[in-house]
Amino acid sequence: METIYKSDFCEYVFYPEDNLLIGRWFNTDHLTQDSFKEELINGELPAIKQCEPNRYLIDTSSFELPIAPDTQQWIVENVSRLYPIYGVKKLAFLTTTAFVAQLSLRQSNEESDDGEVERKHFDNEEAALNWLKSSKL
Fold first, then answer.
1. Rounded mean pLDDT of the chain?
2. 8 Å CB contact between 43 and 7
3. What is the pLDDT of residues 11-33, one digit of tens each?
4. pTM reported for the whole predicted model
5. What are the pLDDT digits (tens) for 65-97?
6. Which strands make up the sheet holding 10-15, listed edge to edge?
7. Residue 77: alpha-carbon gap to chain centroid
8. Residue 34 confidence (pLDDT)
9. Which stretches does DSSP call E strand in the chain?
10. Which comes out higher in pLDDT, residue 22 or 122?
11. Domain assignments of the chain as residue spans, ordered by start
């Protein structure tokens, strides 16, 4: 296990034995759209580029920031399109219970679904990890 990035809002930890990257979000009630983008630029993008994980779990179970439509589009153009380039094959999302935040996260995920990365939403981390590790890539 190697911590790649940690801030007040998120952390990215790589598990080389499973070629698995886990990104966890927290304290997001204090995030703005711009600071959210900064966290993606400073945390997620370098972690994906450095680790080139086949499996990626994004834990948004504590995510409270509704993502604005222009930010959703920015994610598609600047983040999600890089997943297959850096080797991501399976992407699991742990979902939040905050309805508006969950809706915006799902919309962002659906907009970036290019068919190259298998994506699935979960409300249980164990189930998400089992799915990520379940098949050969």
1. 88
2. yes
3. 999 999 999 999 999 998 889 99
4. 0.86
5. 888 999 999 999 999 999 999 999 999 999 866
6. 2-6, 10-15, 20-25, 55-59, 90-94, 118-122
7. 15
8. 98
9. 2-6, 10-15, 20-25, 55-59, 90-94, 118-122
10. 22
11. 2-133
- How far is Cα of residue 75 from the mean position of the Cα atoms in its chain? 11
DSSP 123: S
Residue 52 in contact with residue 18, Cβ under 8 Å?
no
Coil vs helix vs strand at 93: strand
Q: Which two tokens stand for residue 93?
A: 């999302």
| Residue in the block written with tokens 């990104």 | 23
In angstroms, the CA 54 to CA 19 distance is 6
User: What does 25-69 look like in DSSP terms, one character per residue?
Assistant: E--GGG--HHHHHHHIIIIIHHHHHHH--SEEEEE-TT--PPPPH
| CATH code of the region 2-133 | 3.30.750.24
